[in-house]
Amino acid sequence: MKVSELKTKIILASQSPRRRYLLERAGLRFAVIPSRLDEASVTAATPDDYVRELSVAKATDIAQKYPDSWVIGADTVVVAEGRILGKPESTSEARDMLRRLSGCLHQVLTGYCICRICAGRMFADVVRTDVLFKTLTDEEIEWYIQTGEPFDKAGAYAIQGIGTFLVKRINGSYTNVVGLPVCEVVEFLLREQVIGFDRPHPLHDESAATGP
């Protein structure tokens, strides 16, 4: 299937190369205009509320400037035993996070918001995926830290990168762990008739292939 021409512009309010990659792979055409929202300004009682409210704040931050566009905002966190694990700011913090996750089940939560201000439309939700880590040796942890990959990733790992070897099993959406629940986002855009699918082109001209 091929995603058809957009009826209205879509904007991704995130500078995440992973979210951009996921939407591109889904065949969407969109602009990237990152929100500059101060994430510290958003507080919530639970991780679910936090990622939902932050995704809404990011989306509306950009949507107010582009009211005729559909804006997608998102935020992803790793939660272990009720504690949010953000991006590690040091080697020791990355080490502590990986040790905490080693051999344990944790959750990856992505809040996402899609809105179009001029149409008065807004939808926000949270998708949760359970992730089970293998039991890590100190050598594996130190080697992975030395790759540099943990330092701009929530929970200090990237399931789509080198960190794939850390993950023993997941239950739920894989793209949610990467940073955006693509199935749910595309379903909403189809439901709102923001996008559609072109008819597939034939691989060859059948009439030309048939002859005397």
Which percent bin holds the helix content?
A: 25-40%
Shape type? elongated
Order of helices and strands: EEHEHEEHEEHEHHEH
Q: Helical element count?
A: 7
CATH topology: Maf protein
- Rounded to an integer in angstroms, the radius of gyration calculated over CA atoms is 20 Å
Please characterize this protein's 3D structure.
This protein has about 210 residues and is α+β, with helices and mostly antiparallel strands. It has a single domain (about 1-200), classed as Alpha-Beta Complex (Maf protein). It contains 7 helices and 9 strands; from the N terminus they run ββαβαββαββαβααβα. Strands 2, 3, 4, 5, 6, 7 and 8 form a 7-stranded mixed β-sheet that branches. A two-stranded antiparallel ribbon has the order 1-9. α1 links the parallel β2 (about 10) and β3 (about 30). The longest helix has 17 residues, at about 45-65. Residues about 205-210 have low confidence and may be disordered.
